[in-house]
Design brief:
The protein contains 6 helices and 6 strands; from the N terminus they run ααβαααββαβββ. The protein is an alpha+beta fold. It has a 6-stranded antiparallel sheet. It is elongated.
C-alpha cells in the first residue's frame, strides 16, 4: 500500500482559484476609490469645522467677525470659494488671536479651494461639496448655493441637489 501525503496539483489549483475569487469579491465590496474619497472628505470636514469654530471663538473675543476688522469694514459676503475669499475674511487676524495655527493655510493645503464660506455680522457658514457617496447621503449634506446664498433644502425641493450617486450632485456639507 502506498502512503499518500500532501495535496495533489488539482487540489491546490482549486484552493488558489477559490481564494482568488474571494479576494476579487472583497476588493469589489470595499471599493478602494470610494474609501480614498471618504478619507479626503473627512479631512476637509475637519478643516471646515476647525475654521468655523475658530471664527466663532474670534467673534466672542473681538465682538465682531474677522471680515469686519478690515478697512474698509466688510459687513457680509455671499457664498464664495475660501481661496478666493481668503483675504476678505482676514485669516491673519484669526491666527493672531490664537484661534488658528500660524501655518493653517499650509496645513490645509489644497483643501481651501474646496471650502465655501458665507458670512455676515452675526453668523458664518462654512461648507464643502463632498465627493464620496457616504458623505453625499449624510444628513448634514442638505444645502445648495443659489445666487451666492447657501440655502437649506426642504422635503419639498430635494431635487435641487440631484442624485447622490451622480457626478452632478450639487449639495454641500455645512457647519453653521
Amino acid at each position: 500500500m502506498k502512503n499518500k501525503r500532501g495535496f495533489t496539483l488539482i487540489e491546490l489549483l482549486i484552493v488558489i482559484a477559490l481564494l482568488g475569487a474571494l479576494a476579487v469579491g472583497l476588493l469589489a465590496a470595499l471599493d478602494p476609490f470610494e474609501q480614498l474619497k471618504k478619507g479626503a472628505d473627512t479631512g476637509i470636514r475637519n478643516t471646515v469645522s476647525e475654521l468655523q469654530g475658530a471664527i466663532v471663538r474670534y467673534y466672542s473675543i473681538k465682538n465682531g467677525m474677522p471680515w469686519e476688522q478690515l478697512s474698509p469694514a466688510v459687513t457680509s459676503f455671499a457664498a464664495t470659494n475660501l481661496s478666493a475669499a481668503y483675504t476678505a475674511i482676514n485669516i491673519q487676524d484669526v491666527v493672531s488671536t490664537g484661534e488658528l495655527k500660524s501655518d493653517f493655510s499650509t496645513l490645509a493645503g489644497g483643501q481651501l479651494s474646496n471650502i465655501t464660506i458665507m458670512g455676515s455680522s452675526q453668523s458664518v457658514t462654512v461648507c464643502f461639496q463632498p465627493s464620496s457617496r457616504s458623505f453625499r447621503s449624510d444628513p448634514n449634506t442638505k444645502y445648495y448655493i443659489s445666487a451666492g446664498t447657501i440655502t437649506s433644502y426642504t422635503a419639498n425641493n430635494t431635487g435641487t441637489c440631484g442624485d447622490p450617486g451622480s457626478a452632478t450632485f450639487g449639495c454641500f456639507w455645512c457647519v453653521e
